[in-house]
Design goal:
By secondary structure, the protein is α/β, with parallel strands linked by helices. It contains 15 helices and ten strands. The chain has helices at residues 20-30, 49-53, 55-59, 79-94, 98-102, 112-124, 139-143, 158-179, 208-224, 239-244, 254-257, 265-273, 294-310, 315-320, 335-355, and strands spanning 8-9, 64-66, 69-72, 132-137, 147-148, 186-191, 228-233, 249-253, 277-283, 322-326. Helix 9 links the parallel strand 6 and strand 7. The protein is globular, with a radius of gyration of 20 Å.
Length: 357
């Protein structure tokens, strides 16, 4: 699918509210062309990644709560039978069986923002929207937070990593399927701060091949369902990994880490030539947002584009293949700051859109 956003605005995902109506009003007001469903972490632990995205593993006994920890009970006598049950459901879901795919849905109690978003669209229609955006966690991020019952990180265990990747892939497929019912293209951002471990001396056994295989498996599920795949990473990472992967959108915090793109211009050029989009997280998600305005943030973008242009990247391509976003999610901020961030995102988007005219 050709995706040419020309400065359109969207959000990362989380907002600091405890009611869905306030969150949806803010999103629809400032990101009408590509609204997203709101993740609401202040509603409690059920809105965390285990219950939102890995619920099938919990229900099938492959993840268990042990006190304040969630672990893979790999020593359970019936662990092989639990695995067999999971893979049976997974293969049915992958083949398109609706009930099996529904097993990878959000539990109603863990994603109130998603279901409120869907209901709002059902009642009011899509309005000005040209795209609908969903989001999910990534396999490295969860794989380096979860352990088996012996204390070993899940990402280093091939079997457990496979469970995580397949669960996330089918969840992504389900999310595209649900949002796609409204007749618009669906964008799914994978929130993957965990990708920063690649290349770190502390994680030398994490190879480029592992990272690409895991990410591409989830991108393939998004594409097979008809969606557009993106990654959000709010850190300075080896961007060449994402440029090499099979996605359409790369989203980063350029307010703090824009210069981290410069060493990877050689890899960026073919990514853009094949239609890749850069989602510029130019609006800071901390108090600096009160010191900035749309003009100062646009100037920050222009300065980065100028540097990239000097290194061989066509400015007109950057303009055409640009999304505008906050630098990161806003779920843990004060509501007034989140509202300022969303307003600035819209204002910068309007200016970039005008530059594309």
């Amino acid at each position: 699918m050709e995706f040419i956003p020309r400065g359109m605005a969207t959000g990362i995902g989380s907002l600091p509210y405890q009611d869905t109506e306030t969150a949806l009003k803010l999103i629809m007001e400032h990101m009408p062309a590509a609204p997203h469903w709101p993740q609401l972490p202040r509603l409690g632990g059920d809105e965390g990644f285990v219950h939102q995205f890995l619920d099938p593993l919990v229900r099938m006994g492959l993840l268990e709560q042990r006190g304040d920890r969630v672990v893979f009970p790999v020593e359970a006598p019936d662990w092989p039978e639990r695995l067999t049950g999971f893979y049976t459901v997974y293969m049915d879901a992958e083949s398109g069986e609706p009930d099996a795919l529904a097993a990878f849905a959000f539990p109603a109690a863990s994603a109130s923002g998603f279901y409120a978003f869907v209901e709002k669209l059902r009642q009011n229609g899509v309005g000005q929207a040209r795209f609908l955006k969903g989001h999910m966690t990534g396999p490295l991020t969860v794989g380096f937070q979860l352990k088996d019952e012996n204390g070993r990180l899940a990402y280093y265990q091939e079997q457990l990593r496979d469970l995580l990747v397949k669960t996330l892939a089918m969840h992504a497929c389900w999310q595209v399927s649900e949002l796609g019912k409204f007749g618009l293209p669906v964008i799914i951002f994978m929130d993957e701060p965990g990708i920063r471990v690649y290349g770190s001396s502390s994680y030398i056994t994490v190879t480029r091949e592992m990272v690409l295989a895991d990410l591409n498996a989830i991108f393939a599920a998004i594409h097979n369902a008809g969606g557009i795949a993106g990654v959000h990473s709010c850190d300075a990472i080896d961007w060449s990994v994402l440029y090499e992967s099979n996605l359409e959108i790369i989203n980063l915090d350029i307010y703090q880490y824009g210069e981290s793109l410069l060493p990877y211009v050689k890899e960026m050029k073919p990514y853009l030539e094949r239609g890749g989009v850069m989602a510029w997280g130019v609006v800071p998600t901390f108090d600096k947002a009160f010191e900035e305005d749309a003009n100062s943030l646009l100037q920050r973008l222009e300065d980065l584009w100028s540097e990239l242009n000097n290194r061989g990247i066509d400015r007109s391509v950057l303009l055409r293949q640009s999304l505008i976003t906050p630098a990161c999610g806003t779920g843990l901020l004060e509501p007034g700051l989140a509202e300022r961030i969303y307003r600035l995102t819209r204002e910068v988007s309007e200016k970039v859109t005008a530059l594309n005219s």
